[in-house]
Specification:
Elements (H helix, E strand, L loop, with lengths): L1 H12 L3 H11 L11 H4 L1 H17 L11 H18 L5 H30 L1 H23 L1
Helix pairs in contact: 1-5, 1-6, 1-7, 2-4, 2-7, 5-6, 6-7
Length: about 150
């Protein structure tokens, strides 16, 4: 369940990174099949699509016009991807619990990381803090997938 909670926390920072990480791991066959990661995530088009969306989000986050992550559409995306990614990394019998916890963790992490980023931006600027946050998000997502193996 730790992997599920980690990947959900990443959703608080970047909505598409967790889904792209899980989809690509599923496509490469790196996730346990007995846990039943949704086959749709392993499809090459889904994997490529989530990667493209994640790359766009990483680039868009550095723009001055990027909306706050805690606005309603952003929160809906983070909660949804947090729940789906968390459930995908959980053992089959714990999927529902993982999805519920994942949604909550994603929502909570959104607010925590929003406040932390806002404070850091005042000192270091938007681009520098965004790059650091990207590195934390990508590293944590990779760690979560490795923990799920």
């Amino acid at each position: 369940m730790l992997a599920s909670l980690l990947i959900a926390a990443v959703s608080g920072m970047r909505a598409m990174t967790p889904l792209a990480t899980v989809a690509n791991a599923a496509r490469r066959g790196e996730l346990p099949r007995e846990d039943g990661t949704p086959a749709l995530l392993a499809h090459p088009l889904v994997s490529a699509g989530t990667l493209a969306l994640a790359a766009g989000e990483l680039a868009g986050d550095k723009m001055k016009t990027a909306p706050d992550r805690i606005i309603l559409p952003g929160m809906v995306a983070r909660v949804a991807t947090g729940a789906l990614a968390a459930a995908s990394l959980a053992p089959r019998k714990q999927r529902t619990l993982a999805a519920v916890l994942g949604a909550g963790v994603a929502a909570g992490a959104s607010y925590v990381t929003f406040r932390a980023r806002a404070a850091a931006m005042r000192r270091y600027g938007q681009t520098a803090t965004g790059v650091v946050e990207d590195a934390v998000a990508l590293g944590t997502a990779s760690l979560a997938v490795r923990a799920a193996r």
